[in-house]
Amino acid sequence: MRVAVIGLGLIGGSLALAVPGTRGFDHDEAARRIARSRGVDVADDVSSAVRGADIVVAAVPPDGVAATFTAAARLAPSAVLTDVASSKRDLEGFAASLPPGAHVVGSHPLAGSTGRGVEAAAADLFRGRAWAIVPTSRSDTDSVRAVGELARSAGARPIVLSQQRHEALMTWLVRAPLAVSSALAWSASIESPEGLTELAGPGFRDATRLATTPAALAEELLFGADRERLAVVLRVIAGTLTDWADEIVRDDLPPVRAELAAARDMRAQLDRASEDSSAK
Amino acid sequence: MRVAVIGLGLIGGSLALAVPGTRGFDHDEAARRIARSRGVDVADDVSSAVRGADIVVAAVPPDGVAATFTAAARLAPSAVLTDVASSKRDLEGFAASLPPGAHVVGSHPLAGSTGRGVEAAAADLFRGRAWAIVPTSRSDTDSVRAVGELARSAGARPIVLSQQRHEALMTWLVRAPLAVSSALAWSASIESPEGLTELAGPGFRDATRLATTPAALAEELLFGADRERLAVVLRVIAGTLTDWADEIVRDDLPPVRAELAAARDMRAQLDRASEDSSAK
């Protein structure tokens, strides 16, 4: 499987390091130079990276995916095209605009790091992490299978999801936790600060860690696509908190107790799932 | 400073291991045996542990503190009495009921572990952690200073707070994060589970980690003392989430943006504070 990666940032660079035989390209000369110094096979232009590839990965910012797909579909008409964006909302539109015969499958590797750029890239970035595969109207069994193979070559666990399901899960697992964590930190910041930072322990720190998400990423996640869905989820969580406040004050504890138990079970399942996947 | 620790569980056992010259006692014979095998100087009864002590630490469950203080005040009338409970709401009542001349100062070491009992005790449990000191009407400068010295001997950072301030901070830093984390996990558990555990990454895991708090502790924190204060804080956080939902949907982003920035600053201060304290 010949893989071409366009965009050698953290994700693209890591993919090029993780999957043997990958050819990479980046429009930024410095990124190409650093990638080369790290052992990546870097082409000097898009067409020499893409020509002859079986899979082309557009590891570029969301607003560059459509242009990368258009170029790749022209240069390698039989290649499977995939992206790495965390939102799949616009993917179907890009896919449908390509010439007939183009194969497009969405990828969302759930991996990241606090570092940025190819300097922070690492061959093990995807190891044991989930890799969501989101088929489009331009996907078929072979193209979905090829992207699954790419994910596994990088050490990730491929999971095929519909676009709707992927957006719903991202709202629950990424956008809502960011909002909840930030709302807790913001609300606590109104409180008088005396003793607050001194007494904050690991519980408060973990619960508010996502509040440190850089502004640009936080705004992309909260103010980007699908605001209505996010709002519904935030209102559900807010409703749970006000219900608990009311029930605790009027000493109606059985519902809170039952919901705390369900929360504990849900979270224990997560820990079991991660033990299972690390044991594999 | 001669220290007596009554109750050799996780906290009492760790204190006995951390502070040289401590004598310990536990009503449970097995706990005494294990503590001895770990090198603690363990007395065979309360009176030989307490007699001659300068400080007596009641490291027992909250409902055993009053009885331990009463016994200690009789056996060592000039000793400073302190506890380790996370709520200081009932402490003033216990203190006031003791004979005149008894010295009582509240202690809340902010340290813990997922382990239980003296088996999980560790000499470094308190190292670098905060230790709240809450004076009562039965505290004076010397007794507060003695408890500060105890905290420092254990490797902790003593912080003196009023009982009111201590309860307010515990609500923001311990009780509310537990509720918020559980409300997120519970709300997500209503969602269809397909793909949820597979796609959950470190962000969602951190934000929901407190939902794994054991039921008995979670109920003590949420259904115990000062329910009104907790309810107010939960309603503030819920209100923030619903405001953000409304503002995001109607594209009124400046207030959300400003509050996200304040949350980020607040959380960054925490990280700076912990770097400062670990650098010491």
How would you describe this structure in keywords?
homodimer; 280 residues; alpha/beta; Rossmann fold; 6-phosphogluconate dehydrogenase C-terminal fold; eight-stranded mixed β-sheet; 12 helices; 8 strands
Describe the protein's architecture and organization.
The structure is a homodimer of 280-residue chains. The first copy, chain A, is of the alpha/beta class. Chain A starts with a strand and ends with a helix. The first copy, chain A, is elongated. The first copy, chain A, has helices at residues 10-18, 29-37, 46-50, 65-75, 91-96, 141-153, 163-190, 196-199, 202-208, 215-223, 227-249, 253-279, and strands at 3-6, 23-25, 41-42, 55-58, 80-83, 103-109, 130-135, 157-160. Chain A has an eight-stranded mixed β-sheet, with helices on both faces. In chain A, strand 2 (23-25), helix 2 and strand 3 (41-42) form a beta-alpha-beta unit. The first copy, chain A, folds into two domains: 3-161, NAD(P)-binding Rossmann-like Domain (Rossmann fold), CATH 3.40.50.720; 166-249, 6-phosphogluconate dehydrogenase C-terminal fold, CATH 1.10.3660. At the A-B interface, helix 7, helix 8, helix 9, helix 10 and helix 11 of A face helix 7, helix 8, helix 9, helix 10 and helix 11 of B.
